[in-house]
Amino acid sequence: MTMRESEPHFSVLVHPMMQEKDTEMATKEKKEKKEASRVVQGQELEVEHLTEITDVSPKQARALLRKHGADWTKLKDEAEDLKED
From start to end residue, where is composition biased (Basic and acidic residues) (predicted)? Predict the structure, then answer.
């Protein structure tokens, strides 16, 4: 016998609906993260703004926005680094 009778045994049962909800939440989080990494049509204004204030190309601006999102401090710093190269 591997378990002593005096030791309690706990087993965790997860209701199938909870498992499904966890899976849905994880899928939604992945989708949101993936979508956040893309420059969508509405963000073209951000591309234009970044190109105007930093003199980087629109292609470079899109890449920076994909990489850093709306972190304008990082965007400006990296844009300045691109200009120096």
Answer: 18-37
Calpha distance 51→61 (Å, rounded): 6
Q: Give me 54's structure tokens.
A: 């930093």
Instruction: Record the tokens describing residue 24, joined without a space.
Output: 């849905």
Task: Tell me if the pTM is above 0.85.
Answer: no
Q: How far apart are CA 29 and CA 45, in angstroms?
A: 26
d(CA 48, CA 58): 7
pLDDT for position 28: 67
Q: What percent of the chain has pLDDT over 90?
A: 28
What are the structural domain ranges in the chain? 35-84
34 C-beta neighbours (distance < 10 Å), count: 9
Q: What is the mean pLDDT of residues 38-45?
A: 67
Q: What gap in Å lies between CA 58 and CA 53, rounded to an integer? A: 12
